[in-house]
Task: structure prediction
Amino acid sequence: MSLALHVPRRSADGAARQRSGRGAGINPDGRFEGTNREAFDDGWDLASDEAAPRTTVTEERARTIITRNASPDIGFDRSVNPYRGCEHGCVYCFARPSHSHVGLSPGLDFETRLFAKPDAAQLLRRELAAPSYRCAAIALGTNTDPYQPIERTRRITRSILEVLHETRHPVGIVTKSDLVVRDLDLLGPMAADGLAKVALSVTTLNGALARTMEPRAPTPAKRLAAIEALAKAGVPVTALIAPIVPSINDQEIEAIAAAVAERGASHVNFVLLRLPHEVKDIVRDWLARHFPDRARRVMSIMQAMRGGKDYDAAWGVRQRGEGPFAEAIAQRTTLAARRHRLAIGTIELRTDRFVPPRSAAPQFDLFA
Result:
């Protein structure tokens, strides 16, 4: 049983303020906390309390780096995440609730209090060298973006790719950042051997809407340019229209499909807005502030696709929804893909070229 605490909200109008460059307007306690704070307006307007939070990065010393899953509705059974939390600040991010596991808020904490795993490459090398390891494609960045801003200086994703390149291990990357093109010197040769693919998220073509939904992510124009650069380098690209938010960006499905096809994407897919745990409250707050005229309609449609609930975590339903509106989205995506000669499905990678790290088996050198 949690204890509810009422905390003064330093705001003249009593509403959560949008912090410049941040997605979440609130910082709710995680679901595992013993207290539950509720903000209220105490009549004081203290600007210092509303100062933009700065990003902090804590180094996390993990014991393992490959995460396993048995979900039947996703196309991989293992993944690697070099970072926890994400500075892109996408208000809709389904990974936000993971911050509750470390005693932090899925709100502003998720995008300002980050964790980096500097020894990720060494851990990966060790796990790939295990005699029991069986090669299958690793998904890179399934929880938080492996190319978020701190990757420019930390270069942890780069170090992971170097290990995968060396061992000829297949990898699928999910990102919304054009920083991925920095690593074309690795991804290009890997793709030529059937070992690499990239899924790049294009949520909208509207720059203003993108800044509202995902304030620190690269612009739509930069993402389209990244798709073009990847495709020219021979890296197969899936464009993810994700997430689709009813009455906010669903009208762009056809335009996005046309734009990514023109830039060289080979596949397209979509994911419906997901609202697990604390995300539903963060998104409700965001809708009330940015789209007060549509907030109720958005949630009404979402509930219609989720059996009357804000969210349904059932496999096969959580990413697509159910009902007429969900079926219409799927049909529109299929027709748009067909019109622009885009495939819908999984790009298969080779697993027969994997070579375990040599450093893990020095005795082999005796017979070289």
Summary: The domain at 3-352 is CATH 3.80.30.30 (pyruvate-formate lyase- activating enzyme). The first helix runs from residue 108 to 112.
